[in-house]
Amino acid sequence: MLDTMQSFPLSVNLLFRQGAGPHHRSVVSTFDGQSLRRTAFGDVAARVLRLATVLRSLGIRPGDRVGSLLWNMQE
């Protein structure tokens, strides 16, 4: 089983670094129940970086809880 395990943790930070780098043109699709919205992963990653910068300026630090992550939506 260890042969199939990753040698590093799969973190949100890692996902966005990969998305902003080599996969920045990959498309993220979000279906809201009525329509489908498509956005480049690089654009989503840029929005995440802006949000992280604002949260840091407000005093939020690693480990602080500020919301929930929905894996099936851009937001």
Keywords:
alpha+beta
Strand order of the largest sheet: 1-2
Weakly predicted, low-confidence segments: none
Order of helices and strands: HEEH
Oligomer: single chain
Radius of gyration: 15 Å
How would you portray this structure in words?
The structure is a single chain. By secondary structure, the chain is α+β, with helices and mostly antiparallel strands. It has a two-stranded antiparallel sheet. It has helices at residues 12-20, 41-57, and strands at 27-31, 36-40. The N and C termini lie far apart (34 Å). α1 packs across α2 (41-57). β1 and β2 form a beta hairpin.
Outline of this structure?
This protein has two helices and two strands.
Provide the fold topology.
Elements: H1 12-20, E1 27-31, E2 36-40, H2 41-57
Antiparallel strand pairs: 1-2
